[in-house]
Amino acid sequence: MKFNKLIPELGTLNFEKSLQFYTEIIGFKIEYKRGDKEKEHKFALISMQESQLMIDEITNPKSKTDKFITGKLQYPLGRGINFQIEVKNITPILTRLKKNKYPLQSEVKDNWYRQDNKLLGNKEFMVMDPDGYLLRFAQNLKSKKIN
What we know:
Elements: E1 9-12, H1 15-26, E2 29-34, E3 43-48, E4 51-57, E5 82-87, H2 91-99, E6 106-115, E7 118-128, E8 134-145
Parallel strand pairs: 1-4, 5-8
Antiparallel strand pairs: 2-3, 3-4, 6-7, 7-8
């Protein structure tokens, strides 16, 4: 397995719930995980197509010595950030979310973003994971020139 050069690591308040969301509802694949042994920290590297994420359980959200905790941890985590995850087709993800009655943060929409003299298109939607991280799934709609 080749590791991406940037892999966000998301702290989770309930590792099992987050892993179930990412794998069973969204469709990520577990590349490897830890935490099955007693007292072993819960962690997983997951992937979907060409995207990778790491999730791990926050064991002490009130810790003042944990170098990864830089402020008060409370829901929703990840305020001010969203992760765009490009996929070939957003429909299977939407179908699984609907089947599980999982709410969308924003409905499916075609969005066009200017890059110099062209527009780049995405069919996209956002969903909030169980810890409050915003995931923006995007399907490429190609590009078009600006007149």
